[in-house]
Every structure is written in C-alpha cells, then in structure tokens.
Amino acid sequence: MSEVQSKTAVGPEERDVTELVLQDILTGMLPAGTWLKQIDLERRYDCTRPEVRRALDRLSQKRLVAHVPNRGYHVYQPDDRNAREVGDIRVILETAVADMMVANATSDSIATLRGLARYFDEMTLTGTILEHYEANLAFHRELLLLGGNQALVDLVSEIRQRTSSAPVSQWRTRARIEKSGREHHMMIDALEARNAEELKRLIALHIRQPADTPK
Amino acid sequence: MSEVQSKTAVGPEERDVTELVLQDILTGMLPAGTWLKQIDLERRYDCTRPEVRRALDRLSQKRLVAHVPNRGYHVYQPDDRNAREVGDIRVILETAVADMMVANATSDSIATLRGLARYFDEMTLTGTILEHYEANLAFHRELLLLGGNQALVDLVSEIRQRTSSAPVSQWRTRARIEKSGREHHMMIDALEARNAEELKRLIALHIRQPADTPK
DNA sequence: GTATCTTAAATTGGCGCCAATATTGGTAAC
DNA sequence: GTTACCAATATTGGCGCCAATTTAAGATAC
After folding, report:
1. Which residue from A87, B1, B2, B46 puts its CA 20 to 30 A from B110's CA?
2. How far, in Å, CA of B54 to CA of B60, rounded?
C-alpha cells in the first residue's frame, strides 16, 4: 500500500528461506536445540507459512533439524559419535584424491589457492562469521576440485554441513583459527612440492583438529 | 463415518508417497526423462496435491528428479560422467573400511551375511525387481556395518540411489546378476579368511562392474 | 499447600482454491 | 501449403483457512 518498507534491508529479503535458516544455524544464531516455531520464522524472515514449511522439511531431510510430529521442529543436537564418524568419512574422501590433486596441480591453480587462503586469513580479522565460514568452504572446494571428481566435491560440501551444527564451539578459540589458516598454506606448500603423502597427513590433521582429544 | 473403506488395499495406501515414487523410479517403472505431472501422481498414488508436491520437492533435493520452474518435474537423466564419479566415491568409501570389516567380523555376522547373500540369490529367481533391489541393499548394508561407522553406512545407502536411476540397464543381463550373486559369496569368503586386500579387490570389482568398459 | 482435572490458548499440519505461466490447437494471412 | 499469431486449455505454484493435537494455566478438591 504505502511506499514505506518495514526494515531497511529490502534486497536480501528476496533470497531463499532455506538458505537463510541454514546460515543462521551454521553461524550459531540459532543454537542447537532451539525450537523453530513456524510463526516466529514467518516473521523473522518475512515470508509465508508454506515457505517456512518447505524450508523446515528440506532441513529435516538434510538432518540439520529434527522433526517431532505435532510438536514441531528444533535444531539438531549433534551427538559426538556422529560427529566423529563424519569426520572419519571426510578424512577418507579428501585424502583419497590427494594423489590426483598433486598430479593435477598447476601454477595457476596454486596461485588461486594462495589467494583463497589469504582471503580466509583476511576474513579471520575483518569478516563476519558467515564470510569466514564461506571463505573456508571456498578454499576447500577449490582444493578438492583438483581431485577431478566433481561429485566428490559436492558430496563433501554436503556432509560438511551435517556436523557443523556446532560451529561456534569448533571455531571458538582464535589460536585454533589461526592454526587452520597456517595449515591451509602448508597444504599448498605440499601441493607445490608434489608431496602427496605430506598433503594427506596435513588434510587428516586439519579435519580432525576439532576432535583432537587425546584418548 | 461408515465402516465401508473404498478399495480393498487399505494397508499399502497409507505409506509415504515419497517412498512410493522413489521405488517406482528405482524399479524402472518411471523411466528417466518421464515428466511427473502432479495430477497424474495424485491419481496414481491416491493422495492429495500437497503430498505430491512435498514428495517431488524431496526427490529433487536428492537429485533424483529435476525441477524446471513453471514446467514441472521429470525423472533425472543420469549422465555417464556423474555415474562414474559416484562409482569412484563408492569404491573409496567401501574399500576404506575393509580392514575394519575384517577385524570386526565374527562367526555370527558371517552367518548373517551368508543368509543375506542366499536371500539375494533367491530373489533373483522368485522375487520382484524391488525385492531383489532391497535384498542387494540389505547385504551391502550388513557388510558395511562391520566397518563400525554408522554414518558411513547411511551415506553409502544415500549415494547409492543417486545413480541407480537407471537400474534396469545396470541389471539387465541375467549373467551379470548371477555374477553379482557369486561375488557376494566371494566377499564373505575373503572376510572369513581375514584377507583384507582380497576383499578390497572384490569390492572395487563389484562396484565398478556396470562401468567395466575397457578403455 | 499441593496435586489433579478441566478449560482455554496456541501451534502444527492438512486441504482446496485461485492467479500466473506454459502449451497446444486452431485460424487466418501470406 | 506453410508459417505465424492468437485464443483456449491445462498445469504449476503461491497463499490462507480450518480442524486436530498439544501445551499451559487456572480452578477446585483433597
């Protein structure tokens, strides 16, 4: 009716609701266990009921939220066992194509990776938590892409979200973040040196970092 | 109101629509490329419009059907490259836990596997295409379960559907099916003999079978 | 004062309608 | 006879309402 738009953010409102909820879960704005009432989401993201429902259904298919019939949806409470198992899967998949990555690495791709690693470091200081998360994702995607298996790249991106429900606790200490940044550069070094074994070792270490508990 | 139930088949009607469509795609009743008109599905599975919509949305999330805005949904046309890549992923994942499988194998679990392998052979002769498919799935699930990684078992089951969009072409020849049945038993033999390397070789061979083209 | 039953509010979830868009068939013009 | 345009039909997809179930609160009885 009137030209007055509630909220100044007119542009980003047009994005997909599923993405928005996903981001808020990943960034920790919606902590694990939070009940996602349809009315609240409707207002929060300024969207309709069916849109909210579709988003919740999709996220429950991805195992990011749990659905209790006639009770509603809540953010999935990640159990340690599953987190460890998914970590193991990631190590298996990402180290499996290390030889390919070394074989396919060109000076161009290495330069691109350096840029992405630097961008990650930059976001550590100046970026939002979301930008930081996505910078990390972009680096790993580009690295994996050298493996030559597109389906594998997509799959890893997918299962990555499956445990990152507790991103805040994973990335809590600045020391750990900076260590991750350094490891990125070390991976590129190993790639440049055509040292596949060292690359595998670094990847495994990098992924297992959060669960690096001495049993 | 009245006790009269339309249609004698009261039981199977109550199942989830997504499952039903999925099965019909997997068994080849809905061939690749088929346009899935909402009205048709509504009548075919005797369900409501929203149910059909939700099923189509879920299947498109799983990449089993493709969605063209304002045009509709159609069964995904599997491209060879993706099929090969997914095959490679399965080889990576399933061979990665071969050592664990050998380590965790007990006489009990081997007996269970023998039973499942025999059941598969049985279904080759007497079962429907769906029963046959599920018997194969059950065997591989039980085998993978010995790896000790539940998340990996689920993941493999998931990505398995991702290429089996052309199940008919994969399992077309009886000779190949019988070869698969024999390989199941050979895997159990390797497991019993605690021969992890042979098991890996067999698994890789078994998975790559359909794409066994001499380059 | 506490526990339990009853009643009211809120939330979920199923269902159908209607507008927007694409497709098909027909007609007219070239 | 063929092509292009237009209209009618069919299909998709957004949206809101209402019933079923659950939860919370209040009142009454013990």
Report:
1. A87
2. 10
DSSP string, B25-94: HHTTSS-TT-EE-HHHHHHHTT--HHHHHHHHHHHHHTTSEEEETTTEEEE----HHHHHHHHHHHHHHH
Over residues B20-79, the pLDDT tens digits come to 999 999 888 898 899 999 999 999 999 999 999 999 999 999 999 999 998 999 999 878
CB A165 within 8 A of CB A31: no
Chain A residues in contact with B155 (beta carbon < 8 A): 89, 159
Please give the domain boundaries of chain B with CATH numbers for all domains: 12-75 (1.10.10.10), 80-211 (1.20.120.530)
Q: Is B91 on the interface with A (CB under 8 A)?
A: no
CA of B140, closest CA in chain A: separation in Å? Answer: 17
Which of A133, A25, A41, A143 shows the shortest CA–CA distance to A76?
Answer: A25
The one-letter amino acid code at A188 reads I
If you search the block for the tokens 């060879």, which residue do you land on? B80
Query: Residue A27 half-sphere exposure, CB side, CA atoms within 13 Å?
Result: 14
What is the interface pTM, i.e. ipTM, of the complex?
0.84
The tens digit of pLDDT for each residue in A153-169 reads 999 999 988 876 555 55
